[in-house]
Amino acid sequence: MRPRQRLLLQQTLPRLRFDLACAADPWSAFPQRPSRLSCEVGFGAGEHALAQISQNPQTALIACEVFETGICSLLSHVVPEGGEAEAPLPPNLKLWDDDARTLLRLLPDACLDALFLLFPDPWPKARHAKRRFVHPALLPTIARVLRPGAEWRIATDDPTYQRWVEEVLAAQSWFAVPPPVASRPTGWPPTRYEAKAFAAGRQPLYRAVRRS
Hints:
The protein is of the alpha/beta class. The protein has two domains: 1-21 and 41-99, Rossmann fold, CATH 3.40.50; 109-212, Vaccinia Virus protein VP39 (Rossmann fold, 3-Layer(aba) Sandwich). It has seven helices and seven strands. It has helices at 3-16, 47-55, 68-78, 100-106, 139-145, 159-170, 192-199, and strands spanning 36-41, 59-64, 93-96, 112-118, 146-156, 175-176, 205-211. Strands 3-2-1-4-5-7-6 form a seven-stranded mixed sheet, with helices on both faces. Helix 5 (139-145) links the parallel strand 4 (112-118) and strand 5.
């Protein structure tokens, strides 16, 4: 691990980490109580999360990621080199560096205005399907924490995951499920992984389902 990455993880991440003591009242985790709250599951290199907090300053975001390379990538854009311990932090951003499912199960009912799941690991082997975030066992939790009318954005370029999402969403009644589209909708910030998918000749599908 590079010295800069170590400093980011040791000094910056603790200042931005979402405190589970605030799980029952997640808005209280932010310096100023936000009017809206969203969550991103698996933020990758962080470009989408950073775009969201920049474009929507009144909306707080809890961004979840377990991989240190991605966490360091986001943090390196949040604070300048040398400012890991003291540089100001975005007031509407918190990070969760553990399993997003653990966090969601502790959040209160109808607290999220939006949920983002962009290009998740497809877990393509059948025996690994239980690890997929879009899963019948997790849908009740996702439905509980999203307020009525809240949007759940899902994007994937993996054909197996695309079919899986179609099947899982067709068998539930919590969400209104319009057909997916093949072009990134207006207002969806691009991601680096999306660019890699296009470069490799893979076609992403984008879904915006709404809590009924």
